[in-house]
Amino acid sequence: MHLVVDDPNKAKKALSTLGLSYKEADVLYQELPNTAGALGYFAGKLANKEINITSGWGTTLKGSKTAAIVLEVSDLEKTARVRRPQLKTPSKK
Hints:
It is a single chain. The protein is built from three helices and three strands. With about 90 residues, it is of the alpha+beta class.
């Protein structure tokens, strides 16, 4: 199970109290256009900078213009320089 929390210390305490083990990792939260190819385009931008995605998941709501993704990446600092607002998916011709 993956959890994204806003208070890591509180989450660690709660999990430990329940006797559950956990792995802590810094991850990237990114909103992308909710269009076909947006994730592939973003992943390509990361690949061009030699940033690997080691884990990821995402979601969107029906009719939403954006999708939310969470990625564990090989270089979080470098990834921050690749992120939106410059990200736009290519338009179909």
